[in-house]
Each structure stands twice: as structure tokens, then as C-alpha cells.
Design goal:
Elements: H1 2-33, H2 43-52, H3 71-91, H4 93-103, H5 107-114, H6 122-128, E1 135-139, E2 142-145, E3 150-153, H7 165-179, H8 192-204, E4 208-212, H9 215-230, E5 234-238, E6 262-265, H10 270-278, E7 282-287, H11 316-333, E8 336-340, H12 352-357, E9 363-367, E10 377-381, H13 383-386, E11 389-390, E12 393-397, H14 408-420, H15 424-430, H16 433-450, E13 455-460, E14 463-468, H17 478-484, E15 487-488, E16 497-498, H18 505-524, H19 536-564
Parallel strand pairs: 3-15, 5-6, 5-7, 7-8, 8-9
Antiparallel strand pairs: 1-2, 2-3, 4-10, 9-10, 11-12, 13-14, 14-16
This protein binds pyridoxal-5'-phosphate.
């Protein structure tokens, strides 16, 4: 009998262990299924593969015919390239000289200069179309470089420039005048800080505010608080979404360590919701509403433009529906829903993405434009989530500091910005915002279609991305033609054009003319030559073969060198 119960107990434990393992296995499987099939959905594999990709480059001949273009087309491209290079060197002479000199000591400049085009073309592009990264003045919607060239600004200063540079010059100046008496005193606060908090509570609909120095830090703090209050460790972010460069929210290529407490799930997916419903270790979900323009895709940089595979499509209704579903699951599971509005806050609507999509978050992060032109990050949240200590456990705190967190000059510029939002002039800029920018995108697309140019733009209000309609290996060249036509892009190139809301119809018409001129030059010089066999998949396959061949050649060289080495 005793043996019987022992056996029973043994079987019982065994059965329980099997059941637990099966349940764990099922959960693991559900997690795998909720990952996006792309490499950006698999951070660890992506990082490993990134290390596998060897550098190689095209020589001066292959540079012009890497898509198998015939001799005459390659020759035409070469002529176009040399002319463009000549135009750059004459027009941007001083700006290029200053950029090259500064790059020697500026790691950021070296990095951005290296990552403008696919690496196979990098050396020749840098040699002939060097970076011209300095500007000396802004005025209206234009920037002036060191050679005195005025360019239309499509960089939007990474999204900060929402209301026009002149607006921010004023907010900074007026703000500085208001806090001059106090100066850069930290630790104690200027009264404007309290007023800002009040206005931000109204805008966000949330109870409490904390100030930080950058969007990255605001996100760090929001996640830290979510972990503290839920007692759970894991963060869910969605594939492709950028939330700053802090390790936990940037788990893929670019982060040398492994983010062990981050789940990167597929956005707009029932499978992701299932994971949120089942797992008990999830503290928060981070949403970057900018991804509505291209869910699950990485920020579209021209250095990744190896073919015409870049895609974008904005559907406000479906994205809004997704956010509502997410909201419901987070509420049911006590998961903190964080909208990271560092980029889109104030750009889509005065009340940000919450207002625009009609969904409320538990916490919202803001930054960029909210600083009135100065650096800032802000977290808004429910009182019970923002609290940094427990009344009944005095030693259990959630620390957040930062020397410059509430700098009087930043608070003053922010105060000017927030007050300006209430003025009739700024109100006019927000009126029919989407209608205005959609009509402008339609207008540019109609002109491109009429001219039979293989380029289209897709937009989320005033944030645009350029897509290419015919397979090509040379789309990245467009950024250089645009610059030559006086359109200034950020270093990620045609992936993101950001307009400030003070663009008039006349300004925009000038941009359209220049855009058309740049794209026509691309066409004229054969960069968009097309062979029907050249599909995007075929291009990808070619590049993959080149990578493998290079890797193989290196391995063989290494073995050979090893053999030659004296024992
Ligand atoms: C959505 C989002 N979150 C966070 C950040 C990081 O902000 P910052 O560059 O101020 O650190 C960015 C920056 O682009 C962003 O777009």
C-alpha cells in the first residue's frame, strides 16, 4: 500500500511536471508566434547576423552597374555622378570643407557620414558626394549652409521643429528673458515649472508630471516606474519601433548587449494580444504611434535601401482600432500602457496621439518640440504609477534623478510653447491639419505620376516617407539629387521627411518643383533603368550571395594565412 502511494505520488509529480513543461512550452511557442517574422522581430538573431555581414564594396566599375545595367546606362550614370559631384564641390565647398575637418574629431559625424547609403557604395559616395553637415542660419522654412545656399528644411530637426524655427527662436528668447533673474539655478524650482505641470496635466489628461532631459530618459523613467509598481520585469515593445537608445528598448542591432527583459512583438497582431493576456511577467507595453505609418518596420533609413522594398501605408481607423484592443487587454491584465509620444506628441493634434486616435494611455512620454526648442523629456502618468515610494515600505523607493531635469531655461521655453498652443495663430496651423498635409502629399504624388517617375510619398500628417515603385538598387541616390535641388534631409535620407506646420502653399509648391527636378535628374541619368528580371527579391538574393561569397573568401584567406604562419 505504501509502495502504491509512493508510486502514485511519483506519477503525480511526474504528471504535474509534464503538465508544467507542456504549459511552459505552449507559452514559449505563443511568444515565438507573436514575434514578427522579419529580422527586426528577432533581436538576438539579428545581432548575430549583423556580426556575420562582412564589409565589401563595389569598385568604380561595378558601382554603376550593380544591377546588371548595360554599358550605355552605366556610362550615363557615371556622367551624372561626376556632374553631381562637381556641383556639390562648387556649391557646397565651404560646408564640405568644414564638415570634413570636424569629422576627424566628431564620432557622430563619422557615423552619420558612413550610414547614408548601402555600404557597398559607401566609399565612392563619400569621396565624391561628401557630407555637408553645417548650417549657419534658419529663416521661415529654410536653412542656410556655410556657402550661403538656402535650402528648404525637410529634416524637421528630428521632429522638434513643429511650428517653424522662428517660433522657437522667439520661445527661447522670451523664455530666457523671463528666467534671467534666477539664472541656471537647479534643485529649487522656478514657478514656471508648476505652471507647465498644470498645463501638461490638462493636455495629457493624466495626474502627475516628471521632467527629464531627453526623450530617452523619459522612456527609461516610465518603464522603471511601471516595473516598480507592477513588480514585474518585462517590457513589451513592438517590432521596428524606436523609443530612444536605452538598452532595454533597443534590443536589436545597435545594442552590444542582450536585452533579456524585453519582448519584441508584432504590432497589430492578435498573437501579441494573446501573449499579453497569458504572461504574468509583463510590466508595460510601449507604443510609438509613429509606427502607424509602417507597422513592424524599422525607421526607414536610406542606408538600408538595397532595393525598392520600403513600404508604408497609413490607415487611421485600423491603427485606432488596434490601440483600443491593446488598451482593453492592458486594462484587463494590469499592464501599464505607455504611449511614447516623444515624436508625434503635438504634431498629430494638440492632445497628441491620445486625442488623435481616441485612446487613453496610463502613461505618456513627450519630448522634442515640447521643450520649445531646448532639450527635454517628460513623463505624464496616473498618480499611483508616478509615485516613487511606498507609504508602508519607506526603504522601497524608485529613484529618478538628473541634474538638469528642471532647468529654468528649458521650463521657460516650454512655458512659452504651451501658452502659444492656446493662441489663435497656432490654432490656425492645427486647423484641418490632416486634410492639408494629405492634399499636399496627393499633389506631389500626382505630379510624380504624371511625369512617370517611380517615386511616391506616403504620409502620416506632416511626417512623410518616400517609397519607390519600381525595383532599383540606386534609390538612395535620390537624397543627393534632392540636396542639389536645395532640399535638406536628415542623415537617414528619403526615409523620413518632416515638415513644420508653417509651410505655406507657396513654400510647398517650391518643394514639389524641386522634388520633381531631382527625381527627373535621377531618371535622366539612368539610375532608375529597369530590367523586368530585376525584382526586389532578385536584388536581395544577389546581395545575399555577395555577402556569403565574401564571408567564404575571408574564411579561406584566414585558413591560408594560418597555414603559412611558421609553427
Ligand atoms: C518615439 C521616440 N521615443 C524616444 C526618443 C528619444 O528621444 P531623445 O532623442 O530626445 O532621447 C525618440 C527620438 O527620436 C522618439 O522618436
Amino acid at each position: 500500500m505504501q509502495w502504491g502511494s509512493a508510486t502514485l505520488a511519483f506519477y503525480g509529480i511526474g504528471a504535474a511536471a509534464v503538465a508544467t513543461s507542456v504549459a511552459a512550452l505552449r507559452k514559449r511557442l505563443e511568444l515565438s508566434q507573436a514575434k514578427h517574422p522579419s529580422l527586426s522581430g528577432h533581436a538576438r538573431i539579428a545581432r548575430r547576423l549583423a556580426r556575420f555581414v562582412p564589409f565589401y564594396e563595389y569598385d568604380a566599375e561595378r558601382f554603376f552597374c550593380s544591377d546588371g545595367a548595360p554599358h550605355d546606362i552605366a556610362a550615363r550614370r557615371r556622367v551624372g555622378f561626376n556632374r553631381l559631384s562637381q556641383a556639390y564641390r562648387t556649391r557646397f565647398a565651404e560646408t564640405i570643407r568644414a564638415s570634413a575637418e570636424a569629422a576627424e574629431s566628431l564620432s557622430d559625424l563619422q557615423f552619420t557620414a558612413a550610414y547614408r547609403v548601402p555600404f557597398q557604395y559607401r566609399r565612392l559616395v563619400r569621396a565624391h558626394l561628401p557630407s555637408a553637415s553645417f548650417v549657419q542660419a534658419s529663416d521661415g522654412v529654410t536653412l542656410t549652409d556655410l556657402d550661403g545656399n538656402r535650402c528648404y528644411d525637410l529634416t524637421g530637426s528630428y521632429g522638434v521643429n513643429l511650428l517653424g524655427y522662428d517660433f522657437y527662436k522667439d520661445t527661447i528668447e522670451r523664455g530666457a528673458a523671463r528666467v534671467r533673474g534666477l539664472g541656471p539655478v537647479l534643485g529649487s524650482y522656478h514657478p514656471l515649472l508648476a505652471e507647465n505641470a498644470k498645463m501638461l496635466k490638462e493636455i495629457s489628461g493624466l495626474d502627475e508630471i516628471s521632467f527629464h532631459m531627453s526623450g530617452t530618459e523619459a522612456v527609461m523613467q516610465a518603464v522603471r516606474l511601471a516595473r516598480y509598481h507592477t513588480g514585474r520585469a518585462h517590457v513589451v515593445r513592438f517590432c521596428g519601433a524606436y523609443h530612444g537608445w536605452w538598452d532595454d528598448v533597443q534590443p536589436g542591432v545597435g545594442n552590444p548587449t542582450t536585452a533579456r527583459q524585453t519582448y519584441t512583438l508584432t504590432e497589430m497582431s492578435e498573437r501579441a494580444l494573446r501573449v499579453l493576456r497569458k504572461r504574468r511577467n509583463i510590466a508595460c507595453v510601449l507604443v510609438n504611434p509613429l509606427q502607424a505609418l509602417h507597422p513592424n518596420l524599422n525607421p526607414p533609413s536610406d542606408s538600408a535601401l538595397i532595393n525598392s522594398g520600403r513600404s508604408a501605408h497609413f490607415d487611421k481607423t485600423s491603427y485606432g482600432k488596434w490601440l483600443k484592443e491593446l488598451r482593453a487587454v492592458c486594462s484587463a491584465r494590469n499592464i501599464v500602457l505607455i504611449f511614447d509620444e516623444v515624436f508625434v506628441g503635438f504634431r498629430l493634434a494638440k492632445g497628441g496621439a491620445q486625442e488623435y486616435f481616441g485612446v487613453r494611455a496610463d502613461m505618456v512620454t513627450y519630448g522634442k518640440t515640447l521643450g520649445g526648442g531646448l532639450p527635454v523629456g517628460v513623463v505624464c502618468g496616473h498618480h499611483d504609477l508616478m509615485k516613487r515610494y511606498h507609504d508602508d515600505r519607506p526603504a522601497d523607493i524608485c529613484l529618478a534623478r538628473g541634474t538638469f531635469n528642471s532647468h529654468p531655461y528649458v521650463m521657460a521655453a516650454m512655458n512659452e510653447f504651451l501658452h502659444a498652443l492656446k493662441t489663435p495663430q497656432i490654432d490656425t496651423l492645427y486647423r484641418d491639419l490632416d486634410a492639408v498635409w494629405n492634399a499636399r502629399a496627393d499633389m506631389l504624388n500626382a505630379r510624380l505620376a504624371t511625369a512617370d517617375l517611380p517615386v511616391r510619398v506616403v504620409n502620416l500628417s506632416s511626417i512623410w516617407t518616400v517609397c519607390y515603385t519600381r525595383p532599383s538598387r540606386y534609390n538612395w541616390m535620390l537624397q543627393y539629387y534632392l540636396r542639389a535641388e536645395g532640399l535638406l534631409l536628415s542623415w537617414i535620407g528619403t526615409g523620413r521627411l518632416i515638415f513644420s506646420l508653417n509651410y505655406t502653399d507657396a513654400d510647398f509648391a517650391a518643394v514639389v518643383d524641386r522634388f520633381l527636378a531631382a527625381a527627373s535628374a535621377m531618371q535622366r541619368y539612368g539610375w532608375w533603368w529597369h530590367n523586368p528580371a530585376l525584382t526586389d527579391r532578385a536584388i536581395k538574393r544577389t546581395v545575399l550571395k555577395e555577402i556569403i561569397a565574401e564571408r567564404w573568401a575571408r574564411m579561406r584567406r584566414a585558413v591560408f594565412d594560418d597555414e603559412q604562419r611558421p609553427a
